[in-house]
């Protein structure tokens, strides 16, 4: 699949799920976004760019810190996501925040216009993420900072899901995925520079950053129930798996996940999973 087709597919997935994205009784992107902003540490008056902003899990915490003298811009490829963020901006009455439809791989924005660039589970999915990281240095002012998140890739686990899910997803279901979404293809694509912290740091340094810090720590995912988690999984990247499964296989996977998560929680109360997340911060080499 070429880059344009890939982006159309991704935009379509998130357009379809925008109204329910991160709003179905599962907490994950919101606490991860807050922690990302905490590590990026924007201060009053600074200018923040959030690439692939989704529903604003990082955008709104950053806007609170920069305050009315600062500015926070969220960009996303999915128009429906941007529309939802716009509604939230209006509801909160935040004059320092805006959202635009834009390709995060090649954002058409002025050079040196931002002090902080954020990417919550977004930069890593760009067709040419290392190239985009290099271009981002031009958007950042001298000494500007970047902060983004990635899954912690582990051999033998299903990519992008906590290790607890690997035994719940039978390998036979994966034959229904397009070749570019097969786990082996994903591993080749992402692990080439993300799995090893040293490779990741070297990639950033080649792109024009210094003071690279890689921090792996868990983010608590909390779902009101197994059913809520399955519903939530239809609103994020896993939607691509659901869309490619025939109806019988979709029902089989739904039952497997629901039963497995029920066992994991002990049969009552919320489902709580500590999800390993990689937080990466760095500073532009100049300035």
UniProtKB/TrEMBL annotation:
InterPro entries: Methyltranfer_dom (IPR025714), SAM-dependent_MTases_sf (IPR029063). It is an enzyme of class 2 (transferase). Residues 44-152 form the Methyltransferase domain. The keyword Methyltransferase applies. Keywords: Antibiotic biosynthesis, Methyltransferase, S-adenosyl-L-methionine, Transferase. GO terms for molecular function: methyltransferase activity. It catalyses: aklanonate + S-adenosyl-L-methionine = methyl aklanonate + S-adenosyl-L-homocysteine. The keyword Nucleotide-binding does not apply. Its EC number is 2.1.1.288. Signal peptide: none annotated. GO terms for biological process: daunorubicin biosynthetic process; doxorubicin metabolic process; methylation. Pathway: Antibiotic biosynthesis; aclacinomycin biosynthesis; Antibiotic biosynthesis; carminomycin biosynthesis; Antibiotic biosynthesis; daunorubicin biosynthesis; Antibiotic biosynthesis; rhodomycin biosynthesis. Belongs to the methyltransferase superfamily. DnrC family. Homodimer. Involved in the biosynthesis of aklavinone which is an important precursor common to the formation of the clinically significant anthracyclines such as carminomycin, daunorubicin (daunomycin), rhodomycin, aclacinomycin T (aklavin) and aclacinomycin A (aclarubicin). These compounds are aromatic polyketide antibiotics that exhibit high cytotoxicity and are widely applied in the chemotherapy of a variety of cancers. Catalyzes the methyl esterification of aklanonic acid to yield aklanonic acid methyl ester. This is aklanonic acid methyltransferase. It comes from Nonomuraea montanisoli.
């Amino acid at each position: 699949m070429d880059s344009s087709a890939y982006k159309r597919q991704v935009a379509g997935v998130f357009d379809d799920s925008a109204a329910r994205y991160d709003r179905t009784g599962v907490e994950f992107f919101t606490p991860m976004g807050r922690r990302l902003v905490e590590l990026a540490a924007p201060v009053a008056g600074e200018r923040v760019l959030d690439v692939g902003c989704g529903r604003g899990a990082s955008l709104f915490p950053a806007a609170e810190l920069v305050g009315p003298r600062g500015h926070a811009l969220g960009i996303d490829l999915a128009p429906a996501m941007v529309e939802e963020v716009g509604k939230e901006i209006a509801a909160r009455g935040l004059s320092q925040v805006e959202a635009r439809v834009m390709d995060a791989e090649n954002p058409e924005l002025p050079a040196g216009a931002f002090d902080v660039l954020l990417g919550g589970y977004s930069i890593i999915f760009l067709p040419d993420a290392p190239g985009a990281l290099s271009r981002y240095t031009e958007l950042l002012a001298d000494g500007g900072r970047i902060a983004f998140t990635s899954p912690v890739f582990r051999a033998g686990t299903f990519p992008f899901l906590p290790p607890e899910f690997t035994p719940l997803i039978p390998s036979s279901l994966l034959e229904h995925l397009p070749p570019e979404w097969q786990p082996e293809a994903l591993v080749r694509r992402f692990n080439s520079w993300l799995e090893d912290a040293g490779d990741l740091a070297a990639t950033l340094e080649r792109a024009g950053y210094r003071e690279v810090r890689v921090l792996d720590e868990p983010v608590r995912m909390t779902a009101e129930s197994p059913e809520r988690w399955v519903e939530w999984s239809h609103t994020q990247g896993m939607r691509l798996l659901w869309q490619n499964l025939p109806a019988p296989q979709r029902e089989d996977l739904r039952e497997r996940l629901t039963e497995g998560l029920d066992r994991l929680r002990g049969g009552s109360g919320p489902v709580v999973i500590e999800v390993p997340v990689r937080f990466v911060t760095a500073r532009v080499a100049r300035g």
